[in-house]
Specification:
By secondary structure, this protein is α+β, with helices and mostly antiparallel strands. Helices cover 17% and strands 32% of the residues. Strand 4 and strand 5 form a beta hairpin. Helix 8 runs parallel beside helix 10. The relative contact order is 0.10. About 7% of the residues have low confidence.
Length: 560
């Protein structure tokens, strides 16, 4: 395993970023001058550009709003570089949704077939392999820098940006060490303030543009060692690029080598609020301490039953936590503050974390081995999320996922019907209670005479079907198969408006039973679904993965 100290090493009593020894012949703020032709040739020849490769991708994006369809085919290019062990590294967004992936070497125009060995959307990293042995002949590999680079140290980003066919070198300096949810997962719909967020990760900002096509290429230090992987630029800003630190890439590689997969970023597993109010700190009996207030703890997290709502966290691994939820490090002689979650996200799996906590004014220590926490709303397509669906009488139910919300927000710009936060999206911001816990969303209604009287206003989260609690889309597929072969006259759907338990228990005395939100006639539904599927070119009443569950439920009910 790669320890977190690879990024941050304890020096004496303070935690510091130990950087590569810089070139002391240059000032941190050198006076730039134009290089002569000979100097430029020497400087460029010192770069190991022969480890850089170009990717060609072709693929289709899935549709979560019409989950039986896919988008149109598109093509793109990106950059990568060679690792030891006959592997290539690039960005996750370079190989995402690829149906065909090819790669060329810098000195060879031949395109070789490639395949993704492992992808980490939360880190925007991927490992790629080429099975053709001739590709690896006489091909050198890159060397990672041992530590974070100094602030203001020079780096060179190498890649194949759009607009040309040859390798391109862009020079810049490390202008900031920060932590954030990376641009790629944000583009996929991850909201950094939501419980579906995996948390911030260490990142380097450079004053060189990362243009389309540059993504996945290496950023070299003055030794020719890889200090990071070019990831993204900043929209509407010039000469601002973001680089994933080498230590994060090595953590990803180490886990893949030991387990054959990437399980995700380790997470805090609690929500907290800042404590900038002096009155609130006095009320919580904090004295001179600083920290943040725990507001909820994830039921499936390592801190469940260890951390409690109302605890005040004052230290992490012996480091002070500010009232804004940040901790200090020393980088290039300067103290900087990073978000608390970045302390956890850079740790290798199995490494413990210790929190100092004030609980009702008493100080105690809480230690846990933090790990990835399953999100109630699956985050990434083909990793933990698929566009599954169940169709009942033209009513389309799907799983509440981050890609679903992200595609909805994009489609709103082109006129997709409005779905209010109360109908669906407010339910996204909660912890997953157990492995079976999902959100089942009534997404849309394909009009047919069987469902007349219902429409877009019925969009919402399904809680029960025929008075049976629906905990997952698999539950609904099974319940529907059983109900089709049953003797009940009506199918009854209960949405999350009001008390979700009303479908399973009696209402308050005198109020009578709860009326279902949607009622369909059983005998009409099966024939209607056949026509609806034919009209909309839908292969079956459930997605492929759920079809065996539905069919087995139908056959089991017939046999009974």
């Amino acid at each position: 395993a790669v320890p977190s100290a690879l990024c941050m090493k304890r020096l004496g009593s303070s935690n510091a970023v130990e950087a590569e020894e810089p070139d002391r012949s240059e000032s941190p703020f050198p006076l730039e001058r134009t290089l002569s032709v000979n100097e430029a040739k020497i400087e460029t020849s010192a770069l190991p550009t022969d480890v850089v490769v170009k990717f060609y991708g072709t693929g289709v994006r899935p549709s979560y709003l019409l989950p039986w369809q896919v988008g149109s085919q598109t093509s793109w290019t990106g950059t990568g570089f060679v690792l030891p062990g006959q592997r290539l590294m690039t960005n996750a967004h370079v190989v995402q949704d690829c149906t065909v992936l090819q790669v060329t070497k810098q000195d060879d125009s031949k395109k070789y077939a490639a395949r993704v060995a492992c992808i980490a959307h939360d880190l925007d990293l991927a490992l790629v392999v080429v099975d053709d042995d001739s590709f690896w002949e006489s091909l050198p590999h890159a060397i990672f820098a041992l530590n974070l680079p100094d602030l203001y140290s020079q780096v060179k980003a190498v890649g194949f940006p759009t607009g040309g066919t040859t390798v391109c070198v862009t020079k810049g300096i490390i202008s900031r060490v920060d932590s954030q949810v990376y641009v790629h997962p944000r583009c996929l719909g991850i909201n950094s303030t939501s419980k579906s967020s995996h948390g911030g990760v260490l990142i380097l900002q450079i004053d060189a543009a990362i243009n389309p096509g540059n993504s996945g290429g290496p950023a070299f230090d003055w030794r020719g060692h890889v200090v990071g992987i070019a990831s993204s630029g900043m929209p509407n800003q010039q000469n601002v690029g973001y680089v994933i630190p080498a230590c994060i890439a090595q953590m990803f590689i180490a886990e893949f080598e030991s387990t054959g997969q990437w399980s995700g970023i380790s997470q805090l597993g609690f929500s907290c609020r800042p404590l900038e109010s002096e009155a609130m700190r006095k009320f919580l009996k904090m004295g001179d301490e600083k920290g943040v207030l725990v507001t909820s703890v994830a039921p499936m997290g390592a801190l469940h039953e260890k951390m409690k709502e109302g605890d005040v966290i004052t230290h992490v691994d012996g480091l002070d936590i500010t009232n804004e939820g940040e901790y200090p490090i020393i980088a290039a002689g300067q103290k900087i503050f990073l978000n608390l979650d970045s302390r956890i996200s850079q740790k290798a799996k199995g490494e413990p974390t210790t929190f100092t906590v004030l609980r009702e004014g008493e100080k105690l220590e809480v230690t846990a081995v933090l790990a990835p926490i399953p999100s109630l709303t699956p985050r990434f397509h083909a990793y933990d999320s698929m566009p599954d669906f169940v169709l009942i009488g033209g009513i389309v139910f799907t799983r509440g996922t981050v890609p679903l919300q992200n595609q909805y927000l994009q489609s709103r710009k082109t006129g997709y019907p409005f779905i209010s936060d109360k109908q669906v999206w407010d339910d996204y911001d909660q912890w997953k209670e157990d492995p079976e816990h999902e959100l089942v969303v009534l997404l849309t209604i394909l009009k047919h005479e069987v469902n007349l009287g219902y429409g877009h206003t019925n969009v919402g989260v399904l809680t029960a079907f025929n008075e049976r609690p629906v905990r997952s889309l698999l539950d609904l597929a099974r319940f529907y198969g059983e109900a089709l072969q049953g003797a009940e006259e009506f199918f009854r759907f209960y949405l999350s408006e009001g008390d979700a338990d009303d479908a399973q228990k009696g209402r308050a005395p005198g109020s009578g039973p709860r009326i279902p939100d949607i009622v369909l006639e059983r005998k009409k539904v099966e024939a209607a679904d056949s026509k609806i599927c034919a009209t909309n070119n839908i292969p079956a009443v459930t997605s492929t993965g759920l079809l065996p569950i539905f069919q087995n439920a139908c056959e089991g009910s017939r046999a009974a």
